[in-house]
């Protein structure tokens, strides 16, 4: 057999290109080679339920890890399964589903190796850390051993095989990916005789690569993982990247080698054996039933079927239907791989999920992310989308792009299919003049586009800075840059900044404006007022405690001739009194209303997102208008009433005490509440929602007549110490001596609208099943209820609403570890065993670490200030300091379950918090940080040690970067003496 003596192509691909002369045809080298033999391992994924995948050759039951096997906020459920190519298939959710197997069976790779599977991807990963999405792997990339079959960016099929000194990768042709939304058969083969790796897609050769003249090395010390990389990148201290999302069927590992003829024949035989001799269409629908019973997931607000969303944007009306798009990571409940999700409605409150509208693509304006934007109807061709395209290859990686639907050809008013234009719409060159400086070219995003009198206008969020040629020397403030054109495709002409905030005088809107929105304000009767509202979300380059918490606005006049906004007031006003309403987008409805959509941030930790499987949701759309007194009017859209079900109570002309008595039998976690109350001489009027019978959990909506202040008090909203709490509010004047209140309650969502002038958006996460009650109280005087109505609310989607599920209560007849939450503000109850890293100065109430984000320490009724132990003390050696801290010794009682918050460096041997048996010093359980300062709760089931003397030890023996450990809220059930 011929052997190549000179080969410079390390990895090559076939498909749409001339094959290099250095390629050796697989069939040309077939002589003397053994073809594929019987499988050494095979997973058919035909199980209809359960948490194992059966390996057919050995008969072993390989465990499937899946987030909801032991669910935190809902009933336990099995991994998702669907119809496969034949039989069943396993759905990998992109961040939690993984099969852990013993190995590839009796495999001698020196005799050839073939790995193949049917896959139907739902989404592609970005290629985090340059690693593939692993379909199946058992490899050690550091030792250059083992194998991996997977997908690189945009679905490019790859196979890696280790030879000890080399880890050889063959890449499939980029124009022959494993396409989303269809079944693809992928096969990788190692030919020891030809010293070659080969890749096949649906029986056709798509790539080859040469291998060393020696046998491959397997990695028997590594687990064989299906769906997750052997060395995944850890994101945010919580999420494993490099995981597969989609269906998989019939994964086979065989000894022997595929050649071109055999690959084509085998594929033809597979298809011929299928019903109708055709490959079926995969069912990749993201079924919302996955979250049935989630106690916190909203039911009548818009949110994606799975995983992560941020701001909804690009609302548009076309041919009787409203469309909304949203920032979306389909691969998990975390930020990254930004797509545009899409939903459609006939009334803005009942929604249907549509296919993903826009996804990062290699030949697009946004290969590294499709970020926020807007939509507007362009005559007969329908809506056009304007988006922010992320491209990390560029010096300024943000620019705006455009996409069009297929409506002109398919006439489908659901607009399920969109195509991105290959050229950008607008870009920010260096030195673009903007008011007192130049536009901050590195921050150029979130186009807001509309057409008026034949002119297309585009606002792009940015900032104004001074450059010295290499760096920013001064930040003036945020702005929205104005462009105009005669048609959506352009050319677009730059017109300067619409308006800007002087950071020295008006810092609230931030250094950069995100998501600028400019809408006309209808008058009190829906007539034109001549005024506009300009809304922005503030952004700061460094961490700010106010980041992504507020939306600011001005009322003023849009001067179309000068392309400038002239505000009626210099200081911007806060749109919502809470800290959850952010990311505004808006449009004008066919009947002339100006309507805003928003994201309601859930303020949960990364661990809570991972455990729940979803993150964030949209707020209820609101109508904005100009009131008679020149102030802003804010109301939920009138269509929200269409979600109402049965009226639970109707109260008219009653005292507060009598109204409260009638509310005793009224409860719910999905309610619409309308009330008109006359406080009269009362000092406060308070509506309690999500209230438990004993009052241990409740959220208070109060009006203080002396301070003219409406507020939400979440101090006792949840017994969960990991839930964010606090008090938020603002000034509201009574109207005619009356308080008019509208409250929308949707599981964890709480939206209150007061007197048609202000809103307060918040989140509450009760732990008790009975925390569904309502109470109405007042203090001082004789407040009177003019009217009070409560309706049960129906869901926003065409699925039944499952009741919320709650965990049984833990034992309460136990004591607690002394100073378990460091609420004393020092180390009382704890002993420094050795070293200098731990001291009273380490106990802090800081909510952030100054360079990146919040700790998310515990917040309880006993310690609302949130004391915690931060292991980093710059005045005591910082990361280089070491030491050991020990709690009091107690007898373990209750259910024997210990839990605590841990963060900091990731080193289980030298940096950890442990539960230790006092009698012999044996470590019963321990946990380290994960290279992140944000706390995560760890749970140790030590029930077999009930009655033993134990203590908690915090150990720091690590130096250098991340050489510290943080601890808070150490909960040990202590046996009472």
CATH fold type of the largest domain:
Tachylectin-2, Chain A
Please provide the count of β strands: 66
> Rg to the nearest angstrom?
30 Å
Figure out the total of helices: 4
Determine the N-to-C terminus distance: 83 Å
- Largest sheet descriptor: 9 strands, antiparallel
The CATH homology group name of the largest domain: Glycosyl hydrolase domain, family 43
Number of domains: 4
Class per helix and strand makeup: mainly beta
- Mean of residue pLDDT values: 94
Q: How would you summarize this macromolecular structure in one to three sentences?
A:
Its EC number is 3.2.1.26. By secondary structure, this protein is mainly beta.
Notes on the protein architecture:
Helix content is 3%, strand content 42%. It has 977 residues and is mainly beta. The chain folds into four domains: 39-273, Sandwich (Jelly Rolls), CATH 2.60.120.200; 302-619, 5 Propeller (Tachylectin-2, Chain A); 642-793, Exo-inulinase, domain 1 (Jelly Rolls), CATH 2.60.120.560; 814-975, Galactose-binding domain-like (Jelly Rolls), CATH 2.60.120. Strands 1, 2, 5, 6, 8, 13, 14, 15 and 19 form a nine-stranded antiparallel β-sheet that branches. The chain is globular, with a radius of gyration of 30 Å. The N and C termini lie far apart (83 Å). Mean pLDDT is 94; it is low at 1-32.
């Amino acid at each position: 057999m011929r052997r190549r003596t000179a080969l410079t192509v390390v990895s090559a691909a076939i498909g749409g290109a001339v094959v290099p002369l250095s390629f050796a045809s697989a069939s040309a080298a077939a002589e003397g080679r053994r073809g594929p033999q019987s499988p050494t391992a095979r997973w058919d994924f035909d199980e209809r339920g359960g948490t194992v995948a059966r390996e057919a050759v050995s008969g072993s039951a390989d465990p499937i890890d899946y987030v909801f096997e032991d669910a935190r906020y809902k009933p336990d459920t099995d991994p998702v399964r669907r119809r496969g190519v034949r039989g069943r298939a396993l759905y990998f959710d992109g961040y939690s589903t993984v099969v852990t197997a013993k190995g590839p069976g009796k495999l001698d790779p020196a005799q050839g190796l073939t790995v193949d599977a049917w896959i139907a991807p739902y989404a592609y990963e970005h290629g985090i850390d340059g690693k593939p999405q692993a379909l199946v792997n058992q490899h050690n990339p550091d030792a250059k051993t083992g194998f991996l079959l997977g997908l690189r960016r945009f679905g490019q099929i790859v196979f890696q095989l280790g030879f000890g000194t080399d880890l050889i990768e063959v890449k499939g042709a980029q124009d022959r990916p494993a396409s989303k939304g269809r079944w693809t058969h992928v096969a990788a083969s190692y030919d020891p005789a030809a010293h070659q790796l080969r890749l096949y897609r649906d029986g056709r050769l798509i790539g080859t690569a040469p291998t060393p003249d020696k046998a491959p090395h397997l990695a028997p010390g590594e687990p064989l993982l299906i769906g997750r990389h052997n060395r995944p990148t850890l994101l945010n201290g919580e999420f494993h990247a490099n995981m597969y999302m989609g269906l998989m069927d019939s994964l086979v590992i065989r000894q022997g080698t595929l050649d071109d003829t055999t690959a084509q024949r085998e594929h033809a035989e597979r298809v011929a054996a299928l019903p109708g001799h055709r490959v079926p269409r995969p069912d990749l629908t993201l079924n919302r039933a996955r979250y049935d019973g989630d106690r916190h997931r909203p039911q009548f607000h818009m949110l994606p079927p799975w995983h992560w969303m941020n701001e909804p944007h690009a609302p548009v009306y076309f041919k009787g239907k409203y469309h909304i798009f949203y920032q979306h990571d389909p691969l998990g409940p975390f930020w990254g791989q930004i797509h545009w999700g899409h939903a459609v409605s006939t009334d803005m409150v009942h929604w249907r999920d549509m296919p993903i509208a826009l996804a990062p693509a290699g030949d697009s304006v946004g290969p590294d992310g499709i970020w926020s934007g807007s939509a507007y109807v362009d005559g007969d061709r329908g809506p056009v989308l304007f988006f922010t395209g992320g491209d990390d290859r560029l010096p300024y990686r943000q620019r705006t792009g455009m996409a069009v639907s297929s409506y002109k050809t398919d006439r489908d008013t659901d607009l399920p299919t969109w195509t991105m234009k290959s050229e950008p719409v607008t870009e920010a060159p260096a030195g673009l003049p903007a008011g007192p400086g130049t536009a901050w070219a590195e921050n150029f995003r979130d186009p807001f586009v509309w057409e008026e009198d034949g002119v297309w206008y585009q606002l792009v969020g940015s900032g104004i800075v001074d450059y010295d040629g290499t760096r920013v020397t001064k930040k003036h403030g945020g702005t929205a840059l104005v462009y105009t054109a005669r048609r959506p495709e352009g050319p677009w002409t730059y017109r300067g900044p619409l308006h800007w905030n002087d950071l020295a005088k008006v810092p609230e809107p931030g250094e950069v404006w995100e998501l600028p929105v400019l809408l006309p304000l209808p008058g009190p009767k829906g007539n034109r007022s001549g005024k506009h509202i300009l809304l922005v979300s503030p952004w700061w380059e460094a961490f700010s405690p106010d980041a992504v918490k507020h939306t600011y606005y001005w009322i003023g006049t849009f001067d179309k001739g000068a392309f400038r906004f002239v505000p009626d007031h210099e200081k911007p006003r806060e749109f919502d009194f809470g800290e959850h309403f952010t990311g505004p987008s808006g449009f004008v409805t066919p009947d002339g209303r100006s309507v805003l959509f928003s994201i309601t941030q859930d303020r949960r930790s990364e661990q809570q997102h991972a455990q729940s499987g979803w993150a964030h949701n949209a707020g209820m759309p609101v109508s904005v208008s100009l009131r008679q007194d020149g102030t802003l009017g804010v109301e939920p859209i009138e269509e929200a009433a269409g979600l109402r079900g049965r009226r639970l109570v109707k109260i008219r002309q009653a005292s507060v005490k009598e109204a409260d008595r009638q509310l005793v039998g009224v409860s719910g976690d999905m309610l619409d509440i309308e009330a008109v109350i006359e406080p009269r001489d009362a000092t406060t009027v308070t509506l309690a929602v999500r209230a438990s019978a004993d009052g241990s959990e409740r959220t208070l909506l109060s009006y203080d007549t002396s301070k003219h202040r409406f507020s939400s008090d979440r101090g006792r909203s949840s017994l969960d110490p990991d839930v964010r709490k606090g008090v938020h509010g603002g000034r509201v004047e009574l109207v005619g001596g009356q308080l008019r209140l509208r409250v929308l309650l949707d599981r964890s969502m709480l939206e209150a609208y007061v007197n048609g002038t202000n809103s307060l958006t918040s989140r509450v996460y009760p732990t008790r099943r009975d925390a569904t009650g309502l109470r109405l109280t007042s203090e001082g005087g004789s407040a009177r209820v003019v009217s009070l109505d409560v309706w049960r609310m129906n869901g926003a989607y065409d699925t039944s609403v499952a009741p919320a599920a709650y965990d049984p209560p833990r034992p309460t007849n136990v004591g607690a570890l002394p100073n378990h939450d460091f609420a004393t503000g020092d180390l009382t109850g704890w002993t420094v065993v050795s070293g200098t890293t731990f001291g009273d100065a380490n106990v802090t109430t800081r909510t952030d670490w100054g360079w990146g984000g919040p700790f998310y320490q515990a917040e309880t009724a006993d310690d609302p200030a949130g004391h915690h132990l931060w292991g980093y003390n710059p005045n005591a050696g910082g990361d280089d300091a070491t030491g050991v801290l020990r709690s009091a010794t107690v007898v373990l009682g209750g259910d024997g379950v210990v839990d605590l918050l841990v963060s900091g460096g990731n080193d289980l041997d030298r940096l950890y918090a442990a539960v230790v048996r006092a009698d012999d010093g044996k470590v019963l359980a321990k946990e380290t940080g994960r290279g992140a300062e944000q706390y995560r709760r760890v749970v140790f089931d030590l029930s077999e040690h009930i009655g033993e003397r134990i203590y908690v030890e915090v150990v720091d023996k690590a130096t250098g970067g991340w050489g510290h450990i943080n601890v808070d809220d150490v909960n040990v059930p202590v046996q009472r003496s």
